[in-house]
């Protein structure tokens, strides 16, 4: 089974001492460029439908580059993400 990431949100804030060595913050400039700060939290609703369109089942890592439940992420967006996972689960993908 293939593995991949789906990023319905990007960006995060340091909220605890455990955030000091955040891997996502380190690789963020490589993935999204240096013109945007890691603390700029954004929702990408268009990415929610990606897994539903895939033909082959995959293991999916959701939000490796952010916190889906960050205070800047609207609750509706988090809810739509979980609904999308349930829909894609019927295509044999695993989250």
Written overview of the protein:
This protein has 95 residues and is of the alpha+beta class. It has one domain. It is 31% helix and 15% strand. The strands form 2 sheets. The chain has a two-stranded parallel sheet. The chain has a two-stranded antiparallel ribbon with strand order 2-3. The protein is globular, with a radius of gyration of 14 Å. The model has no long low-confidence stretch (mean pLDDT 83).
Concise overview:
31% of the residues lie in helices and 15% in strands.
- Approximate helicity band: 25-40%
What is the number of E strands?
4
- Shape assignment: globular
Low-pLDDT stretches: none
**SSE sequence, one letter per element:** EEHEHEH
List the helices and strands and how they pair.
Blueprint: E1 2-6, E2 9-10, H1 23-32, E3 42-43, H2 50-53, E4 58-62, H3 75-89
Parallel strand pairs: 1-4
Antiparallel strand pairs: 2-3
Q: What tags apply to this protein structure?
A:
95 residues, alpha+beta, two-stranded antiparallel ribbon, 31% helix, globular
């Amino acid at each position: 089974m293939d593995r991949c990431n789906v990023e319905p949100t990007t960006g995060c804030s340091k909220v605890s001492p455990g955030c000091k060595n955040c891997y996502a913050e380190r690789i963020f400039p490589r993935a999204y460029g240096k013109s945007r700060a890691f603390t700029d939290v954004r929702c990408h609703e268009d990415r929610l439908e990606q897994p539903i369109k895939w033909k082959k089942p995959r293991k999916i890592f959701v939000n490796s580059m952010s916190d889906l439940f960050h205070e800047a992420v609207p609750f509706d967006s988090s809810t739509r993400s979980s609904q999308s996972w349930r829909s894609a689960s019927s295509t044999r993908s695993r989250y």
